[in-house]
Amino acid sequence: MNKVIFDFEISGHHSEYIDYILTFLVNDKRASDNYFFILHPDFFYRFPYIVKRAEECKNVNIYYLEKSDIDALKGLSIVKKSFKIFNIMNTYAKKMKADHVLLMSMNIFQLPLVFRRPSFMVSGILFLQFYRMQKKSFKEKLKYYRKYWTTKLYAINPKIKSVFILNDELTVSFLNRAFSTGIFKMLPDPIPQHVEEDGFDLYTYYNIPKEKKVLLHPGAIDPRKGTYEIIESIDLLSSEAFSRYAILIVGKANQDTDRQIRKRSALLRNKDFVLVYDNTFVSNERLKSMFAQSYAVLIPYKNPEASSGILGHAMTAGTPVIAPDYGLLGDIVRSNGVGITIVETTGYSIAKAIEMLENIPPFSTEKISDFIDSHSTLYFAERVMGDSI
């Protein structure tokens, strides 16, 4: 049989997930079918070590989307974009004579799968779903029920085999019960065990005074992750916290977000605060070092339904987090006792949480160890590829 793994994105966790699946296919003797990876056109140049791993497996082939495919998505409305990317995926899948396609990010495909019945079976990873969304305002209710009906309609598509939800058994149970189906399945968000970058010192590299305690905000930078509110919190800190901490924002941001971060940083009243912003992609090894050398990790995300690989990295390093009190992240942080939660993502709430960091009780190493063990990269790959093997 021919199995296609399709991923048109490249930032954040996308490369890591592809790496875990490739490693699994190379090492697993059951992987006897033909596997075709259809990836972002820049993947080879950004991650040659991952591509090289595929050479060890004769039944694995890697192809790249044309740059024109990615360019064709620019400037489109979300509806037009969703059908355009579905058509691109469908064209490649048919070319590979696919029997099954795994969508590494299913979100954009939800609406097309309400109407389209492809010639192959489909599975996908859904990163944002509606169950944990807030419904306080009319706009929030409208968004909730729009997603509810979209999910209800694509859930009856006979070509969908599995929809994976990261870390959230509660949501999986609700979706299967609400729509009388069994396609929704819990997928542990993998926590990789990277090694630290040899010789990397966060303080020296970013010229941060040694007496400062670094608060790290890493990953693909996006306003939905509370980045602007983190900057806003600086002017709201007590004088003691102001002198004690430094904030490091590191990760790729798009042009608009980059411009806003620089603008808001320049408008801060407290010019003496150590705020470092590095708009660059960071290797796994360097990221591992950053988690180990930071005092806390800031993940005040605005989407209560979202999971976060960053949380897993922080837990592995034994570094506390500041996260939202609501949604999946709040559940994980509270149940494992790994940080401070905030009721809303505002500069004021973040500032108050920063001031409380000194009072966090010690972690339960046994509880964290159990969580990490159940979220291994091998188990992730076994689970997500279970439909295909």
Topology summary:
Blueprint: E1 2-7, H1 14-27, E2 34-39, H2 43-46, H3 48-53, E3 60-64, H4 67-71, H5 78-95, E4 100-103, H6 112-115, E5 121-126, H7 138-154, E6 160-166, H8 169-178, E7 184-187, H9 202-205, E8 213-218, H10 227-233, H11 239-244, E9 245-250, H12 255-266, E10 275-278, H13 284-293, E11 296-298, H14 309-317, E12 321-324, H15 327-336, E13 339-342, H16 347-355, H17 365-373, H18 377-384
What are the salient characteristics of this protein?
389 residues; alpha/beta; Rossmann fold; 13 strands; 42% helix; globular
**Largest sheet composition:** 7 strands, parallel
Q: Looking at CATH, which topology of the largest domain would you report?
A: Rossmann fold
CATH architecture of the largest domain: 3-Layer(aba) Sandwich
Across the major sheet, the strand order is: 3-2-1-4-5-6-7
Mean pLDDT: 90
Per DSSP E runs of 2 or more residues, the count of β-strands stands at 13
Query: Portion of residues in helices?
Result: 40-55%
Short description:
The protein is of the alpha/beta class and 389 residues long. It has helices at residues 14-27, 43-46, 48-53, 67-71, 78-95, 112-115, 138-154, 169-178, 202-205, 227-233, 239-244, 255-266, 284-293, 309-317, 327-336, 347-355, 365-373, 377-384, and strands at residues 2-7, 34-39, 60-64, 100-103, 121-126, 160-166, 184-187, 213-218, 245-250, 275-278, 296-298, 321-324, 339-342. The chain is globular.
